[in-house]
Design brief:
9-stranded mixed β-sheet, 12 helices, 39% helix, binds fe (ii) ion, disordered N terminus, D-Maltodextrin-Binding Protein, domain 2, alpha/beta, 359 residues, 9 strands
Length: 359
């Protein structure tokens, strides 16, 4: 975790007023002034900074959220303080802090952590203008949070070790003894746990328990998806279950950790074709509701989604009709299973994986 929030510069009254008026418009401005007048327990509400500040509990990749924050601040003058951490860790922190949390916005890599905070009753309704920018398959039916990006599960495999007809047809095949010692994953990560939550939703608890026991017997475990891909690249394992963007990100750099690796998409609505929705929500306890909602609207809007299209995250855009980076296999070709992201049960997955001895 790191605090990126340097103190807001003290702009002159005229400059601050002008920027505020341009950025926010009358109604929002009025409420911003009221909020400043009330004071706030959170030091991020500094009236001298003009348009205000928000604190984001960020579990998305730091570089992606930083790019969103920089562009949003340039456009609106609203300063964004990021506190970075993992999905489960930050969800647990929000639940522990309850209505006293300094967070205005929560962003995650995956849906289960969002569902956890929603279940605790901590989210405000997402602004309808934001909801309207995101197709319904990329957000929960409750409207308590929204998808902000998406990522596909893949089987990343070593080209020297496997040819196409030796690939698993389903992710469920990896429990078979024939895969013993030949595949890997990062079970402690929220990314992998989200994939298991999709399996739980699609196949039920008994089948998931059996699969996890097979995984315990067969899989080599790593810390993080990058480590899994490196293991595949080095030939320590034939293949690994990760998300697609780790491969594309490495290929866009030197390719040194992925030169022997290629991707297999399970498709066929398999649990292994799961597309995980990264979420964004506004905390009901936020004292900066307008700016927080505005940030979410920005992320899911044209400019925010274009950062996914043209940047180095290689995650999929989900809103405002922005197409994916042309290097990626388009989402509509992935035959991913339809799942309401709000149904993904993180705590039950943790229980099942703990019982299987994986975490
Ligand atoms: Fe990730």
């Amino acid at each position: 975790m790191r605090a990126t929030g340097a103190p807001a510069p003290h702009t002159g009254r005229t400059g601050a007023w002008r920027r505020r008026t341009l950025a926010l418009g009358g109604a929002v401005l009025a409420s911003a002034l009221v909020l400043a007048g009330c004071g706030s327990s959170d030091s991020s509400s500094d009236s001298s900074s003009g348009a205000g500040e928000i604190t984001v509990y960020n579990a998305q990749h730091d570089s992606l959220t930083q790019a969103w924050a920089d562009e949003f601040t340039a456009e609106t003058g609203v300063k964004v303080n990021l506190r970075n951490g993992g999905d489960s860790e930050m969800a647990a922190q929000l639940v522990a802090e309850g209505s006293k949390s300094p967070a205005d916005v929560f962003l995650t890599e995956n849906s289960p952590a969002m569902a956890q905070v929603e279940t605790a009753g901590l989210f405000a309704d997402v602004d309808p203008a934001t909801i309207a920018q995101v197709p319904e398959q990329f957000r929960p039916s409750t409207g308590k949070w929204t998808g902000i990006a998406a990522r596909s599960t893949v089987f990343a495999y070593n080209k020297d070790k496997l040819v196409e007809d030796q690939l698993p047809v389903s992710i469920m095949d990896l429990q078979d003894p024939s895969w013993q010692g030949r595949w890997g994953a990062s079970p402690s990560g929220a990314d992998f746990q989200a994939i298991v939550s999709a399996m739980l939703e699609l196949k039920g608890a008994d089948a998931t328990k059996t699969w996890l026991e097979g995984m315990k017997a067969n899989a080599k475990t790593y810390q993080g998806n990058s480590a899994v891909m490196k293991g595949v690249n080095a030939g320590e394992i034939d293949g690994g279950v990760i998300y697609h963007y780790y491969w594309f990100g490495d290929q866009a750099k030197t390719g040194e950790n992925s030169k022997n690796v290629t991707l297999h998409y399970f498709k066929n609505e398999d649990p292994g074709a799961f597309v995980s929705i990264s979420g964004g929500g506004v905390l009901e306890s936020s004292k900066n509701q307008d700016q927080a909602q505005q940030f979410l609207q920005f992320i899911t809007g044209k400019k925010g989604q274009e950062i996914l299209q043209t940047g180095t995250s290689f995650e999929y855009p989900v809103g405002s009709d922005i197409a994916a980076n042309p290097a990626l296999v388009p989402l509509d070709q992935l035959q991913y299973p339809a799942i309401d992201p709000e149904k993904l049960n993180g705590p039950e997955v943790v229980d099942l994986m703990t019982a299987a001895g994986l975490i």
